[in-house]
């Protein structure tokens, strides 16, 4: 990722977000940027369990629910969004378009996009006060769909500063988001041409080492000889390190969980789209993540993303 002064055209965004591009996509990321300071401000009081489980059978924190509600309200209110799905909701929400009886919906004419979010990614980091994020995918199709139907994807990273990375057909942009002191946000572009560095430096792999299949362990042994370990337990934070320094992130297939942990619609597809637009690659071990055909909204998938040669080596190792 380029440094703050690297792009001579970088600077504050005009009202309404980035110029040009798809207006619905711009409106989605305007809404996401606008909620980011509110989500951040709400976290200190929401580090406790909510007492519920989500559709993936995971315990939900109060922060997960708060972010889900805030983002759900903001995104379903947008013109041009027909369907809203979230990691924290069992079924899809009709956001103004026609929704089919099975809950996964059909998007309506003139309101074609479906937005999928992981409201708080890495929320187990809330207790230990480490980085977390929000992941967003904008699909031009009813969900579940493949990542080929993404028209844009992005994430917010709640780190020492709040940043947002957005990828669409024009490329990948990184912004800093700050409250403007007037109830709104000030957004400044760090770069509008984010590219993975050619010389990779870091790796981060999830799951317990004894649970890794032997072929992945052998690959990891090679990689740890070449790169520095950077694993923080939030996909968004760990992928952001890969985008910044070059390298590889994986939440692999595990011996007892061949689908891994991460969810295709909310996590793997948007991250694969962003990394590929930034010049990298993403695979489930066999095929491009964006080609994985989903059966259900909450499907999981192994995810390996980063510099192309590292991902190609991984594929060869798992073969
Ligand atoms: O705690 P583990 O097993 O390392 O898992 C970490 C992974 O799980 C996640 O936290 C799952 O995301 P959620 O927090 O949205 O459920 C990823 O962000 C991260 O890569
Ligand atoms: Mg997540
Ligand atoms: Mg989450």
TrEMBL record:
GO CC entries: cytoplasm
Keywords from the UniProt entry: Carbohydrate metabolism, Cytoplasm, Hydrolase, Magnesium, Metal-binding
Binding site for substrate: 121-124, 231, 261
Binding annotation for Mg(2+) 2: 118, 121, 267
Pfam families the record matches: FBPase, FBPase_C
Coiled coil: none
Superkingdom as given in the UniProt entry: Archaea
Catalytic activity, reaction form: beta-D-fructose 1,6-bisphosphate + H2O = beta-D-fructose 6-phosphate + phosphate
Pathway(s) served: Carbohydrate biosynthesis
GO terms under biological process: fructose 1,6-bisphosphate metabolic process; fructose 6-phosphate metabolic process; fructose metabolic process; gluconeogenesis; sucrose biosynthetic process
EC number from the UniProt entry: 3.1.3.11
A single GO molecular function term of this UniProt record: fructose 1,6-bisphosphate 1-phosphatase activity
InterPro entries registered for this protein in UniProt: FBPase_C_dom, FBPase_class-1, FBPase_N, FBPtase
Cofactor binding comment, as recorded: Binds 2 magnesium ions per subunit.
Residues that hold Mg(2+) 1 according to the record: 87, 118, 120
Segments forming domain Fructose-1-6-bisphosphatase class 1 C-terminal: 197-318
Keyword Repeat applies: no
Cofactor names: Mg(2+)
EC class name: hydrolase
Subcellular location: Cytoplasm
Domain Fructose-1-6-bisphosphatase class I N-terminal: from-to ranges: 49-178
This protein's record includes keyword Magnesium: yes
UniProt-listed NCBIfam families: PRK09293.3-3 (NF006786)
Subunit structure: Homotetramer.
Family membership noted in the UniProt record: Belongs to the FBPase class 1 family.
This protein's name: Fructose-1,6-bisphosphatase class 1
Gene encoding the protein: fbp
């Amino acid at each position: 990722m380029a440094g703050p002064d690297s792009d001579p055209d970088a600077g504050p965004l005009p009202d309404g977000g980035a110029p040009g591009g798809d207006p619905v996509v711009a409106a989605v990321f305007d809404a996401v940027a606008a909620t980011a300071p509110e989500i951040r401000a709400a976290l200190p009081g929401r580090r406790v369990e909510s007492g519920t489980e989500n559709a993936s059978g995971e315990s939900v924190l109060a922060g997960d629910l708060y972010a889900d509600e805030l983002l759900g309200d903001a995104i379903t209110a947008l013109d041009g969004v027909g369907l809203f799905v979230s990691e924290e909701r069992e079924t899809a929400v009709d956001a103004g378009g026609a929704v089919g009886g099975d809950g996964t919906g059909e998007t309506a004419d003139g309101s074609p996009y479906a937005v999928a979010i992981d409201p708080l990614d890495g929320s187990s980091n809330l207790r230990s006060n480490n980085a977390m994020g929000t992941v967003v995918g904008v699909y031009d199709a009813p969900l579940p769909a493949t990542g080929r139907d993404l028209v844009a994807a992005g994430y917010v990273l709640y780190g020492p500063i709040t940043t947002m990375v957005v990828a669409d057909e024009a490329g990948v942009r990184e912004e800093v988001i700050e409250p403007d002191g007037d109830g709104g946000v000030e957004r400044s572009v760090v770069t509008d041409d984010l590219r993975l560095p050619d010389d990779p430096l870091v790796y981060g792999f999830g799951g317990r080492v004894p649970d890794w299949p032997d072929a992945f362990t052998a690959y990891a042994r090679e990689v740890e000889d070449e790169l520095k370990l950077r694993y923080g337990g939030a996909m968004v934070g760990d992928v952001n390190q890969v985008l910044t320094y070059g390298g590889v992130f994986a939440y692999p297939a595990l011996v007892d969980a061949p689908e891994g942990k991460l969810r295709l619609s909310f996590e793997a597809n948007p991250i694969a789209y962003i990394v590929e637009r930034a010049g990298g690659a993403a695979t489930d071990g066999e095929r491009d993540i964006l080609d994985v055909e989903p059966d259900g909204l909450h499907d999981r998938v192994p995810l390996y993303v980063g510099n192309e040669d590292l991902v190609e080596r991984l594929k060869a190792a798992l073969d």
